[in-house]
């Protein structure tokens, strides 16, 4: 069901939404659906207010890397992604109605 939920959410998203692409030879678990947005915190808050379980799973990655000696500016793509990635729930308990609501909110930020 999670893969079906992922396909359904993808079909509802505007083309402006930056979806994290999955290489052909990989099979994700489809527990969450990652996207990139420059308005991550605003989107996160709106989804949270609507009880839609967004995630910022990678938000502390850069801080942790700095703690282990990473020098800021060495991996610019990673720095951008860490600040923009948000995960949307698509696990088996997420209903079609919730997926439509997630898409409607996300599309406002595209």
Structure, described:
The chain has 110 residues and is mostly helical. The chain has five helices and three strands; from the N terminus they run H-E-E-H-H-H-E-H. The chain has a three-stranded antiparallel β-sheet with strand order 1-2-3. The two termini are 26 Å apart.
Entry keywords:
single chain, 110 residues, mainly alpha, 3-stranded antiparallel sheet, globular
Strand content: 5-15%
Distance between the termini: 26 Å
Number of strands: 3
Helices and strands, in order, run as HEEHHHEH
The amount of helix comes to 40-55%
- Largest beta-sheet characterization: 3 strands, antiparallel
Provide the residue-averaged pLDDT.
Answer: 91
- The spatial strand order of the largest sheet comes to 1-2-3
From the alpha carbons, calculate the radius of gyration and give it in angstroms: 15 Å
- Looking at the structure, what is the overall shape? globular
Low-confidence stretches: none
Number of helices: 5
Instruction: Give the helix/strand class.
Output: mainly alpha
């Amino acid at each position: 069901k999670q893969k079906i939920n992922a396909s359904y959410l993808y079909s509802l998203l505007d083309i402006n939404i930056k979806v994290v692409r999955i290489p052909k030879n990989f099979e994700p678990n489809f527990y969450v659906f990652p996207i990139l947005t420059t308005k991550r915190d605003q989107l996160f808050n709106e989804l949270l207010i609507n009880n839609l379980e967004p995630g910022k799973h990678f938000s502390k990655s850069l801080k942790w890397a700095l703690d282990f000696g990473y020098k800021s500016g060495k991996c610019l793509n990673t720095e951008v992604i860490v600040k923009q990635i948000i995960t949307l729930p698509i696990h088996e308990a997420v209903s079609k109605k919730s997926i439509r609501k997630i898409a409607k909110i996300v599309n406002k930020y595209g």
